[in-house]
Amino acid sequence: MQRKIAFVIYYQKPNIYSFNALTAAIETEHQLDDIDLYFARGQENLHNNLEQIRESHGTIIVGVSFFTTQLWEIRKLVKSLRKKYKNDILMIAGGPHPTGDPEGTLNLGFNLVVRGEGEETLIEILKNVIDNKGFSDIKGISYLDQSNNLISTKRRNWIDLDKYPPLPSKHVKYGAIEITRGCPYVCYFCQTPYILGTTPRHRSIDSICDAVRIMKSYDKTDIRFISPSAFSYGSYDGKTLNIPMLEKLLINVKQIIEPNGRIFFGTFPSEVRPEHVTKEALRLVLDYAANDNIVIGAQSGSQRILDSCNRGHTVEDVYKAVSLTINHGLLVIVDFIFNLPNETEEDINQTFNCMEELSEMGAKIHAHTFIPLPLTVFAHEEVTTIDEKIRTRILELNSRGLIYGNWRKQEKFAKKISNYFKTGKLSN
Q1: pTM for this structure?
Q2: Closest Cα partner for 241 from 250, 232, 249?
């Protein structure tokens, strides 16, 4: 009698987009049809589900995707699972943090780490479980050998996005549709180009529209997109806009979801680069989208800091983008990052001046704190406490309703993460 196999997905809100894509990929492989998929939200639900699942399954695989800021939550989860189930379950980790820190992730108690894009890798892992084979022949994974040495197999080639659908059709798990992977800008604080490459890969309009039709069949007609930069869809280099291709996408999607469906474009979960804000791009938002705002990534008001981060745009680009957006009748939210490496008092003053001037123009400021992330150029940069003068100025802007964000929570994470990268140990 063949073992029944369960793949249990730790389906947390910050990580649902990646698991939606992975689930869709699994559905395309008929060899995996006999693997039962389960989705568990929260640690308590995961434990309860595993208790029931193991009564009817001989092999249980748990999949976890996470960001660096989730390290402490995931450590607690893995510790509790290992305490209860020992080695009776196969635990696989993927996502931004495991890709950048495979050894640290494996030391938490995972059996395998999937590095980078997971569709093809996960399918091969599941096939090898079915065939009772090992994993050493699979590209794009890391594991610890019997001597506890890190083994990392060769990197996998970038996938063709049209090889797999963006959303599953059998399992009702939907959300934003990923339309582009890869970013040419290589900002020194961002993981995206290091994980997904620097050459943009776009999903075809037909593939995107197939996903929209499936969503509509379940009365889900609020459509959002995932992209490193929202206006770059169809661009051959990710920098030169392809307005005709972008408009064709929006026209086709709108035709499917009419009369009551809505497109949200240039806002969460994909912001816009300031130099991509043009009259033509804003016209597309006004003509086809339901959102009344766009989100622009400025990150600093100091040109020196923008250059040191390899941002690839100017402070003047930010002013022009905000002015143009407001003149087109749209609200604008501008992202800034505090405590970036090598900031001087002059840089900070320039950033505050910029924020206040943009606020006077009508923009709202979304404040973040720099967090070091694995693989990035800034991964091991020194993280300091935000200066009290800066804190006071942020709070003053906040009291006037001009700024918002989780910068204080991010500051705490930044210090803990920086310490982890220095020592290799997670603080309590």
Answers
A1: 0.94
A2: 232
Separation CA 374–CA 376 (nearest Å): 6
Radius of gyration of the CA atoms of the chain, in A: 22
Model pLDDT, residue 199: 96
Would the pLDDT of 2 be above 60?
no
- The CA-based angle 8-79-117, given to 5 degrees, is 45
Q: Read off the pLDDT of residues 76-121 as tens digits, 9 standing for 90 and up.
A: 999 999 999 999 999 999 999 999 999 999 999 999 999 999 999 9
* C-alpha angle 372-374-378 in degrees, rounded to nearest 5: 45
Strand partners, 226: 178
CB atoms within 10 A of CB 268: 12
Distance CA 115, CA 356 (A): 41
CA 8 to CA 377: how far, in whole Å? 34
Distance (Å, rounded) from C-alpha 320 to C-alpha 1? Answer: 67
What phi, psi does 321 have (nearest 5°)? -65, -45
Q: Starting from the edge strand earliest in sequence, which strands make up the sheet with 141-144, in order?
A: 36-40, 5-10, 59-65, 89-94, 112-114, 141-144, 150-152
Q: Give the number of other CB atoms < 10 A from CB of residue 263.
A: 21
CA distance 199 to 250: 23
The enclosing H or E element of 263 equals strand 262-264
Percentages (nearest 5) of helix, strand, coil residues in the chain: 45, 15, 40
Is the Cβ–Cβ distance between 93 and 110 less than 8 Å? yes
In the structure, what pLDDT confidence band is assigned to residue 388 with cuts at 50, 70 and 90? confident
Specify which residues 19 forms β-bridges with.
none
The contacts of residue 341 (CB under 8 Å, 6+ apart) are 308, 370, 378, 381, 382
- Residue 260: pLDDT band by 50, 70, 90 thresholds? very high
Burial 88-122 (b: 16+ CB within 10 A, else e): ebbbbbbbbbbbbbbebbbbbbbbbbbbbbbbbbb
pLDDT of residue 308: 97
User: Residue 10, Cβ neighbours under 10 Å: how many?
Assistant: 23
DSSP annotation of 56: T
Three-class SS of residue 336?
Answer: strand
Q: Rounded to an integer, what distance in angstroms lies between the CA atom of residue 284 and that of residue 166?
A: 23
For the chain, domains (ranges, CATH) are 5-152 (3.40.50.280), 174-271 (3.30.750.210), 292-428 (3.30.750.200)
The whole-number pLDDT of residue 387 equals: 84
Q: Report how far residue 230's alpha carbon sits from residue 227's, in angstroms, rounded to the nearest whole number.
A: 5
Tokens matching residue 424:
């290799």
